[in-house]
Fold this protein.
Amino acid sequence: MNLVIDVGNSFSKIALVEKETILYKEKCVTSDLAIRCNELLMLHSIKKGIISSVGFLTDEQLASLKSTVSLMTLTHDTPVPFKNQYATPKTLGVDRIALMSAASQLFPTKNVLVIDLGTCITYDFLSKDNIYYGGGISPGVLMRYQAMHTFTSKLPLLTPDSRDAKLIGTSTNASMQTGALLGTAYEIDGFIDSYKKKYKDLTVILTGGDLHFLQNLIKNDIFAHPNFLLKGLNYILEYNKF
């Protein structure tokens, strides 16, 4: 059984994977990560693991995890199952590397656009020739609400509510919901449409923590895959025969 850890900007995800099947997963605040992993290690026969971090993980936390299980750390130098053509590979987030590894494994010989709805929204493209070229990064849903509140004097801080995301918002709150949620959905549809014009046989994957806010607002056909990044991390672990 493999231990798969994804340290994000907002929280961390932990998964137990057996032969490519996710048997268990949870999310926790990163400060509790070592405690939760050690509890799982006491309950399950875990032989190896992988950790990916784009958030804040202290050296002490990482050392604590590595003291209890054989743990691979995903870096820009880790061998991956696709050809990376990103112009500045050292600046590429390891989360995006994991997503492209999942695309390479699950959709071989396909043009794949992976849209990750996290703290930021990332757009990443893998060609049918298994070449990664890059994509885009834009503010995530919660960041848009926070920006409207922080950079104005009177707009409230809201949480996403798709029931109010109608074309014409009839109150200030409803107008903000429309702008944040429909605006994001229109952005995503616009990106998908542009990719489809260039790549006719495009497969689109939607993943990430804000998937449930947005998947029903998007007009294009997509595959919703909430565990795509975890799958990619596990594939990298197995690919490296760690």
Q: What stands out?
A: The chain has a mean pLDDT of 93. The first strand starts at residue 2 and ends at 7. Helices lie at 33-43, 59-66, 94-106, 141-150, 172-198, 211-214, 228-239. The CA atoms of residues 83 and 131 lie 5 Å apart.
